[in-house]
Amino acid sequence: MPVPAPPPERRPRAHIVRLVLLAPFVGVLWVPSYNALTPSLGGIPFFYWYQILWVVIAAALTALVFFIER
Amino acid sequence: MRWVAAIVCVALFALITVLGFMAARWRRGDLDLLHEWGLGGRRFGTFIAWFLIGGDLYTAYTFIAIPALIYGAGAIGFFAIPYTILVYPILYVVFPRLWAVCNRHGYVTAADFVRGRFGNGWLALAIAVTGIIATMPYIALQLVGIQVVIGALGIGGHGLLHDLPLIIAFVILAAFTYTSGLRAPAMIAVVKDVLIYIAVIAAVIVVPIELGGYSRIFTAVPAAKLILAAPKGPTLGGYSAYATLALGSALALFLYPHSTTGILSAQDESVIRRNAAMLPAYSVLLGLIALLGFMAIAAGLAKNPEFADGFKQYGPSFAVPALFLATFPGWFTGIAFAAIAIGALVPAAIMSIATANLFTRNIYREFIKRDCTDGEETAMAKLVSLIVKIGALFFVIFLPLTYAVQLQLLGGIWIIQTLPAVMIALYTRFLNGWALLIGWLCGIVSGTWMVATLHFKGSIFGIHLFGTAIPGYAALWSLVINILVSFVLSGILNAVVSDQHKDRTAAEDCA
Asked: Distance between CA atoms of B153 and B136, rounded to whole angstroms?
């Protein structure tokens, strides 16, 4: 039986987990959902700590995708 | 004159000057080659890239202007946070592809890629010129950041004495950029970022303690400024303005030449992907910096006679410097101001290098002297980077600040018009070079027209859809027009006179 040629060297392929990267778009673009002062955290109004929290969540999601795709 | 702060500031400045010149010998390469001078030899690993791109994106202008916007206008100024949240998924997914194809073909600029992909010299020229013109006011605004710091150090007044420190800073910047190219801002970015983190973390801990806690700070701010005004009537009001500002700015950011330069200087694609997860640390910092704007309101700085001159001369931009002066001893304020001033030099250096790369590759080598040697190419780039900086300095010293601000506003709308030819083109070759050029033109004209109707004072333009007013960032609306025109015309032209065969790149290049 003929031996098939080895597949060419591929870089890591995009993984379906990338879809989680859509979450930050929903989280921060849907403005009416977070345009509020309460509940506050440590004295900081909701509008502000919610968005700063999303910075951390989005970074974590990106790191997640990075490690899964490695 | 605030002597202690000034001495500390100058000392740190002297340090980075030395570093800037030493950088020429770091990760040695033949600095007569454009990709060595202009892209640091594509040698920067994850951590250097983190400092470089971070220093590139989070500039002195950012640290002064965002709190100033919060101080003056309130909640809408916070759009910078969702903007930077959305930047990183885009960076992660799209830009390793650009890195790969540029690395494979030796492209130094985004316009190089467009030239190779579409074989259309005019389209590539449009991309290059857009990049150059959009960056220039941005450089000028960094110098304004240095001006505010100089003013805050007490070297006040007008005229030559006031401008002299700026000119000196600028000469130093020009000199080490000339000798070391991109390696200089990369090395200095490390110092700058360390200083900025120290200054901001100290501020967000110490200032609230002095003012009695975060609750007290936010209570001192008028309620109307704290959140967006809920829209009344058939309009999406502040909601769509805020969301489109964030999305439009995020899409535009990496199209700026200095961002592209930062990305292309990476060693390999994984550096970019890792940084997409690591750079958000700067965004947390930015969120805290934005809150400084509210702290400045709560501290009642505007009523403090010591700062009256500063606010008079610089307006809300004086909020952050005044806050540091009011809170910290002179030596620490010197550190913070040095961080801001150096935080202006790093992006100014990268922006001038990126602009020089564009001019040299995509105008000089393309249209003026095709057969230039590597040495001539780089010599031209060095010269252009110098000219660009001189132009920015001239602008800052002799023209009113409003011009720079308005041009930067327009610049954001223009640079986003390169999105189809650069970002969409990384995924599909369906688009036609000429269609893209016409789409680009439609985007530029429509975006500029929208801002003109606002008398160049803002960029939120209201469109009307199904009986609802939707105020939104003009850049996004004009981009939609651009994309529609590009796709429709491509469909037509592909059937009649296709340019698909002119693609010098291959699908695997981007994989």
From this structure: 27
A18-61 pLDDT, tens per residue? 999 999 999 999 999 999 998 999 889 999 999 999 999 999 99
* Signed CA dihedral, B278, B280, B282, B284: sign only: negative
Task: Look up the pTM and report it.
Answer: 0.90
Asked if A31 is an interface residue toward chain B (Cβ–Cβ < 8 A), one would say yes
CATH number of the domain residue B26 falls in: 1.20.1730.10
pLDDT in tens, B439-471: 999 999 999 999 999 988 888 999 888 888 999
The answer to whether the CB atoms of A59 and B214 lie below 8 A apart is no
For an interface test with B, the pick among A55, A65, A67, A70 (most B C-beta atoms closer than 10 Å) comes out as A55
Distance CA A29, CA A20 (A): 15
Do the Cβ atoms of B84 and A55 come within 8 Å?
A: yes
Q: What's the domain range around B312?
A: 3-419
Residue spans per domain, chain A? 16-69
pLDDT value, residue B158: 66
Query: Looking at the domain assignment, is residue B477 inside a domain?
Result: no
**B200 located within any domain:** yes
Q: How confident is the model at residue A8 (pLDDT cuts 50, 70, 90)?
A: very low
The 3-state DSSP class for residue A35 equals coil
- B457 domain-assigned: no
Q: Which of B285, B276, B201 is nearest to B50 (CA)?
A: B276
* Complex ipTM: 0.89
Q: Which residue of B has its CA nearest to A28?
A: B82
Number of domains, chain B:
1
Lowest mean pLDDT among B25-39, B213-227, B278-292, B331-345: B25-39
Q: How far apart are CA A16 and CA B353, in angstroms?
A: 38
- Closest by Cα among B77, B245, B251, B243 to A27: B243
